[in-house]
Automatic annotation (TrEMBL):
The keyword Calcium does not apply. InterPro entries: SAF, SAF_UxaA/GarD, UxaA_altronate/galactarate_dh. It comes from the Archaea. GO terms for molecular function: hydrolase activity; lyase activity. Signal peptide: none annotated. GO terms for biological process: D-galacturonate catabolic process. Pfam families: SAF (PF08666). Keywords: Hydrolase, Lyase. It comes from Haloarcula nitratireducens. This is UxaA family hydrolase. Residues 13-88 form the SAF domain.
Length: 107
């Protein structure tokens, strides 16, 4: 039975959202459309963050909710935490917004 705390919205998604904390080495079952996938968690993942539910090659599109949210900046094996350290977001980096604003103000 799929873990109800791993959310995949569309069958085309290649990431799941963790609705609980995940621990490295844990094996989870993820419901993807009509199928179920087993994934071993590669590293600790905190609530609300994403994990790859399949291997994602560098440059490949990250798909969540059936939509592109960015591109992998490195190979991301299944079970790996997916976040700003390995994804170039379509939406910009909020953690860099203050740096960008500081540059504009100082110019």
């Amino acid at each position: 039975m799929p873990d109800r705390y791993l959310q995949v919205v569309e069958p085309t998604d290649n990431v799941a959202t963790a609705l609980r904390e995940l621990e490295a080495g844990e094996t989870v079952s993820v419901g993807v459309g009509d199928e179920e996938r087993t994934v071993e968690i590669a590293e600790d993942v905190i609530f609300g963050h994403k994990i790859a539910i399949e291997d994602i090659a560098s440059g490949e599109t990250i798909t969540k909710y059936g939509k592109s949210i960015g591109n992998a900046t490195e190979d991301i094996p299944a079970g790996t935490w997916v976040h700003v350290h390995n994804v170039e977001s379509n939406y910009g980096r909020g953690d860099l917004a203050d740096d960008d604003q500081a540059k504009v103000v100082s110019e």
